[in-house]
Amino acid sequence: MKKIKINYLNNEFLLNESVLQNTDFHGNATNPKVVINRVVGATMIKQFVKKHFKGIKVWSTSETFSMGNAIDVNVSNVDGSPIPTENYEKIDSFAQSLRMGRFNGMEDIYEYNRRDKKTDNGIELETWCKYITVNNSPKFGTIEWGLENLRKNENETPEDILYYIDNNKKEKFLEAVKS
């Protein structure tokens, strides 16, 4: 699929051309708009991290469920330790800019935030990312997660942690523990 460059909050993103819509549901021509769904949102967050924070590992997943969707992002240093708070806050702030509203627990409703979001070029930006969570820790089951758990829990052994490491990464985890 062809890629296009989108500029948002002074950052350039390379996205599938399908994010740019020029027609409505009936096929009639409309003003162009960029539509950010959960998958595109997760991609943008990963690109943001990789561009601004060298040496930081980033994982992102997204899911759809009844009445919504979610993006989960994990960030850590290469050794699994948390990144500096100021970097985490910058990443979280960018991620939350893609959110389409917030849940109001007092009234048990989701409040949509339809303020005018635009790309840096003035094209309308429509976000469909309902819940976005950024965690300052490695993704569960990764080598980095295992290394961080060994550091934090002195009673744990590599063999204890090995049970939770992805099957295709177990040897690399043991090698990382030895080094």
Quick structural gist:
This protein has 179 residues and is of the alpha/beta class. It has helices at residues 38-52, 85-96, 143-152, 158-162, 170-178, and strands at 3-8, 11-16, 20-23, 29-36, 56-65, 68-77, 101-104, 109-112, 124-127, 131-135.
Based on the model shown, name its key terms.
179 residues; alpha/beta; 2 domains; 3-stranded mixed beta sheet; 5 helices
Description of the molecule:
The protein has 5 helices and 10 strands. The chain has helices at 38-52, 85-96, 143-152, 158-162, 170-178; strands at 3-8, 11-16, 20-23, 29-36, 56-65, 68-77, 101-104, 109-112, 124-127, 131-135. The strands form 4 sheets. Strands 3-4-9 form a 3-stranded mixed beta sheet. A hairpin with a 4-residue loop joins strand 7 (101-104) and strand 8 (109-112). Helix 3 (143-152) packs across helix 5.
What Rg, in angstroms, do the CA atoms define? 19 Å
Global structural class: alpha/beta
Beta content: 25-35%
Proportion in helices: 25-40%
| Structure summary, number of beta strands | 10
What is the mean pLDDT? 94
Poorly predicted regions are none
List the SSEs and their pairings.
Elements: E1 3-8, E2 11-16, E3 20-23, E4 29-36, H1 38-52, E5 56-65, E6 68-77, H2 85-96, E7 101-104, E8 109-112, E9 124-127, E10 131-135, H3 143-152, H4 158-162, H5 170-178
Parallel strand pairs: 4-9, 6-10
Antiparallel strand pairs: 1-2, 3-4, 5-6, 7-8
Helix pairs in contact: 3-5
